[in-house]
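Journal club prep — side note

Before the paper discussion, L.F. wants everyone to see what a predicted structure for a comparable chain looks like in token form. Sequence:
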Amino acid sequence: MRTTILKAAAGLLLVATLGAAPTFAQPPPGFVLPPLLMQSTAFEDGGIVPQKYAGRGGVQPAFTFSNAPDSTQTYAIILHDLDVALMGGTGDVLHWMAWNIPAAAKGIPEGKLPEGSVNGKNITGQPGYMGPGAPAGPRYHHYVFELYALNAKLDLPDTATREQLIAAMQGKTVAKAAYVGRFKGMPQ
């Protein structure tokens, strides 16, 4: 009883303060959030990225994709370091992006992409994977592999920017997942 009274009082206080009860966007009827998964044996989600997968000479880790919606035709991946802001802005470090990864592949093998996939350019202007490269220091950087399940193949050249990739995915993304690796360099 006391809990109910406290909740009601808090709600009245909120209404008095804001002038109206807050409203939250509700998903449309029948909305289902697909449980897209990406997994790797290279390192655990949230775990430390081994040196093998780090730096400019690092090997692209293998991932498996599962639980994608039936409408998935291709995948796109964006890898970036969340812990860096460049040139006074909010942009971070783009380490890798790839798209048109065939859904039938159900993932990517270590060190390469399935046939038909496109490797975009990373921050160095080079196509392909560039592994984590945070300097030695007191904390780890967080590297996020964002996986997008798409209901279409993207018509983008390998010179496309991240902004162009994201724009091309608008209206075609049917699910999204993320996988995080942490890394910091070793003191010299």
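L.F.'s comment for the group: The radius of gyration is 21 Å. Keep this in mind when we get to the figures.
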